[in-house]
Amino acid sequence: MSAAPAPVEQTTHARLIVSTHRSALLRVTLHYRADDPLAVRMVFPAEYALEPDPLDDPADEYGDPYGDPYGDPLAGLPAEPSPEPADGVEWVFARQLLATGLDLPSGEGDVHVRPALGTRTVVELRSPEGVALLQFDRADLRRFLWHSYLAVPEGRELSHLDCDRALAELLA
User: Fold this and answer.
1) What is the SS3 assignment for 27-62?
2) Can you list the residues of the chain whose pLDDT is less than 70?
3) Element (H, E) at 124
4) How far is CA 127 from the centre of its chain?
5) CA pair distance 93, 110, nearest whole angstrom
6) How far apart are CA 94 and CA 126, in angstroms?
7) From CA 8, how far away is CA 27, in angstroms rounded?
8) Per DSSP, what are the bridge partners of residue 31?
9) Which of 55, 76, 94, 115 is the most exposed place for a label (fewest CB within 10 A)?
10) What's the confidence (pLDDT) of residue 57?
């Protein structure tokens, strides 16, 4: 029996879009594992996590008195990243969503991926605390996906899925 493919990990930079005139550069690590073949993981520094604003009205689901469903993208975000984050915030979503979003707007729910101007791709992460817009160089995301396809070819994901282990983790 052959050994499982090594996990794919790639660190890249992304721009956190704060406003039309402000952004912050941060380091993002992308992960892919053959034992979880349908998912990719995106980890970014914990200091960029969207935290609930203690001044928000708990009756207002999005923290915006004017009804903006996207909330305040600055809530809980520092102006600059620390050089060495202690731990990160991880988002997990479908590898197919990332692949499709490089060419076409894709996603439902908490994660949306879409092409942007030039050679950029935007990943939109939604939570009850707000929305984070991350802009990546499309080539970096394509390189990551290419390496993930070397580990588990597209269309072969189910042959790598351990349903018993996945069910045990779900029920644990």
Assistant:
1) EEEEEECCCCCCEEEEEEEHHHCCCCCCCCCCCCCC
2) 1-3, 48-86, 155-167, 169-170
3) strand 120-127
4) 12
5) 9
6) 15
7) 16
8) 9, 41
9) 55
10) 42
Instruction: Supply the pLDDT for residue 36.
Output: 86
| Spatial separation of the C-alpha atoms in residues 154 and 167, rounded to whole Å | 23
Single-letter amino acid code for the residue at 67:
G
DSSP 83: S
What pLDDT shows up at residue 47?
Answer: 77
CA angle, residues 30, 145, 32, in degrees to nearest 5: 45
Whether 89 contacts 43, CB under 8 Å: yes
Q: Tokens 């080539």 map to which residue?
A: 139
- Tell me the pTM: 0.71
Q: Say if CB 16 and CB 133 are below 8 A apart.
A: yes
Encode burial over 141-156: b for 16+ CB neighbours within 10 A, e otherwise.
beebbebbbebbeeee
